[in-house]
Amino acid sequence: MKKLIALLMSVMIVLGSLAGCGSKKEETTKAQETTKAQETTKAQETTAAKEETTAAEASDLAYVKERGKLVVGITDFEPMDYKDESGEWIGFDADMARGFAESLGVEVEFIEITWDNKALELSGRIIDCVWNGMTLTDEVKSAMECSNAYCNNAQVVIVKADVADQYQDVESLSDLAFAVEAGSAGEEEVKALGLNYTPVSTQADALMEVAAGSSDAAVIDSLMAAAMVGEGTGYDELTYTVGLNSELYGVGFRKGSDLAAALNDYFKEAYGDGTMEKCAETYGIQAALIEQ
């Protein structure tokens, strides 16, 4: 009898043990299935995030919209970009940039840049575009994705008014010491002519050099000259004489950026409904949309 009882207890222990193993195996399987499901979900989320990042990286338009802000690189350049009495950036370019940002459903932020570093500022994503009366030179077009031209311009020579009659052609400029903005179309012109010059940070600095007598002459944009030089301006003792070229203004984006095409569409709309012309009249310039 004792042997029978002992045998039955042994069988029960074995069966209990087998049942326990089965339960543990089921629990392990369920845990493994849960872990796999979690890993699959995480992998899907990671893939989706990567796809969003890749899309933003591939598309500047998507990047700007996702961030909710268009960062515009400028310099103090009246009548295109300059500050009013309250310190707000205004001007033809500033106002048009605001309108473009609004059309994208984002805010606009203006950052003053060193003009000679504009391409680096773009590639480093410090700014999204250069919108500052920028001449569409071959160098600019090779380094940036540029919009269609929206304004005609020229580089002109600035001298003191009391000696202006001595400098009415290119040949008369050879003995002058010039101040020009580094990296500008003006610098390209004086270089091409082999003239003696000192690079300065901005076109406004070039004007100050001439007014102070530190330089004999400057080369700046004709639009800026019309706004800042001559009777009724802060530089009434200066005037402009020789025109060195004719050129076009455009906006620069990162190479391959889809924002350039978006801006061209905005320009067409603004030009067609009169918005661009009205803005140009406000700042005394002539807008001329030129598709390339």
From TrEMBL:
UniProt entry keywords in alphabetical sequence: Signal
SUPFAM superfamilies: Periplasmic binding protein-like II
Family matches, as Gene3D superfamilies: Periplasmic binding protein-like II
Pfam family, one: SBP_bac_3
Name the UniProt record assigns to this protein: Transporter substrate-binding domain-containing protein
Organism expressing this protein natively: Fusibacillus kribbianus
PANTHER family: ABC TRANSPORTER EXTRACELLULAR-BINDING PROTEIN YCKB-RELATED, MEMBRANE-BOUND LYTIC MUREIN TRANSGLYCOSYLASE F
Signal peptide range: 1-19
Biased composition (Low complexity): 31-47
Sequence segments annotated as region (Disordered): 24-54
Nucleotide-binding among keywords: no
Domain named Solute-binding protein family 3/N-terminal: residues: 69-287
